[in-house]
Amino acid sequence: MAMKITQECIACGVCEPECPRGCISAGDIYVI
């Protein structure tokens, strides 16, 4: 499944553990 972090992201962190491959990482912004 393709995922995209949009401009509406508020950096709440909910998406980070949902990625089955651990591809989302936190920083000043979340990135895939």
Keywords:
32 residues; little secondary structure; 0% strand
Outline of this structure?
With 32 residues, the chain is low in regular secondary structure.
Q: What value does the average pLDDT take?
A: 79
Q: What would you report as the Rg, rounded to the nearest angstrom?
A: 9 Å
Tell me the overall shape: globular
Secondary structure category: little secondary structure
Estimate the helix proportion, in percent. under 10%
User: Uncertain runs with pLDDT below 50, 5 residues or more?
Assistant: none
* DSSP strand content: under 5%
Describe this structure in words.
With 32 residues, the protein is mostly loops. The chain has one domain. Helix content is 0%, strand content 0%. It contains no helices and no strands. The mean pLDDT is 79.
What topology does this entry show?
Layout: no helix or strand
